[in-house]
Amino acid sequence: MKTEVKFKNSGIEIGLYTLGDISKDPLSGRKISAEQRMKEIIAAAKLADEAGLDLFGVGEHHRLDYAVSATPVMLAAISQQTKQIKLTSATTVLSTVDPVRLYEDFATLDLLSGGRAEIIAGRGAFLESFPLFGFDTKDYDALFSENIDLFLQLNKHEQITWEGRFRSSLHNAEIAPRPLQREIPIWIGVGGTKESAVRAGHLGVGMAVVILDGDPSRFQPLVDIYHKAGLEAGHDPQQLQVAVTGHGYIAKTSKQAKEEFYPYYAHYKESVYEQRGMEYTLSRADYDQMVGADSALFVGSPEEIAEKILRQYELFHHQRFIAQIDIGGIPFEKVAKGIELLATEVAPIVRKATSR
């Protein structure tokens, strides 16, 4: 009999994710190596686990300004340094990975971690993995559709016969190893498109909504569409779970958080635009507006962060909140302090309010 492994806290789950960007610290000018970045990611996950957070996610990029391309390898290393925290990709670029290999990797991770593996799958904000692995960007959506269909079948069956368009057929193929959990939980990352929300609902998988700035209420129609599509497809409402992901920075006071984060966030925004071949400068006035009380950018004191999470909870009634607090070259000691504040001061407020 398969084991159903669950780790629970009351209220919504609260976690962290990292994309592993390797950025120069705009204040010191220091830039760490990929090796050091990986060590710091493992250390952050260990701190989050020891502090009682629920989830830790690691992203996937295939370029020199990011440290992590082999996400399951990274998560496997983290699994050996942690005990309770759930471990997820954030996100797996499902269009350019073989679903069989992906399943085997995460089933192995699940066994190594004692049943803590998960996947957030997406189509990817960057396209470098397409030529790298021999795929055509014109098949961007078709690849994703076929690969998630195959993955969901692999998740349910130990032996499978399958035929598709983009990879070789499977004939009574044995899919091993099998995970400790009955199935590996899979979520679809949604950046704002109605089609992605409908797909997640139709498939009956979780939906992780990426809300980086601006008014979060603009995403409420997507959550409604997701639930409607899931119910129309006949899925149990309890199966239709929503996660909200976003950028953040926490310090003891609001002023401290906003002052400390500005150079790093401005550097991050400039770097993202530069990666896309564009120039951008974030003014202090624009930044101050972006970190306002009604914005989705989680910057402030623990009380302010908790208020923002709960304001979004009123909109979405989501089951998870996942923050990225290590962008733009922020030194590890500041990341570590943010983890401490999130776990010891923000999480108790949010869990108490959402467990009613």
Short summary:
This protein has 356 residues and is α/β, with parallel strands linked by helices. It contains eleven helices and twelve strands. Helices cover 43% and strands 16% of the residues.
Question: Can you describe what's shown?
Answer:
With 356 residues, this protein is α/β, with parallel strands linked by helices. The protein has one domain: TIM Barrel, CATH 3.20.20.30. The chain is built from eleven helices and twelve strands. An eight-stranded parallel β-barrel has the order 1-2-3-5-8-9-10-12, surrounded by seven helices. Strand 8, helix 6 and strand 9 form a beta-alpha-beta unit. Helix 1 packs parallel to helix 11 and helix 10 packs across helix 11. The longest helix is centred in the last third of the chain and has 23 residues.
Question: What is the fold named in CATH at topology level?
Answer: TIM Barrel
Distance between the termini: 34 Å
CATH architecture: Alpha-Beta Barrel
Strand content: 15-25%
Q: Please state how the strands of the largest beta sheet are arranged side by side.
A: 1-2-3-5-8-9-10-12
The mean pLDDT is: 95
Number of separate strands: 12
CATH superfamily: Luciferase-like domain
Instruction: Tell the overall outline.
Output: globular
Order of helices and strands: EHEHEEHEHHEEEHEHEHHEHEH
The radius of gyration over CA amounts to: 20 Å
Assign a percent range to the helix content.
40-55%
Structural class: alpha/beta
Count of alpha/pi helices: 11
CATH class: Alpha Beta
Number of folding domains?
1
Poorly predicted ranges (pLDDT <50, ≥5 residues)? 1-8
Q: What's the story with the biggest beta sheet?
A: 8 strands, parallel, barrel
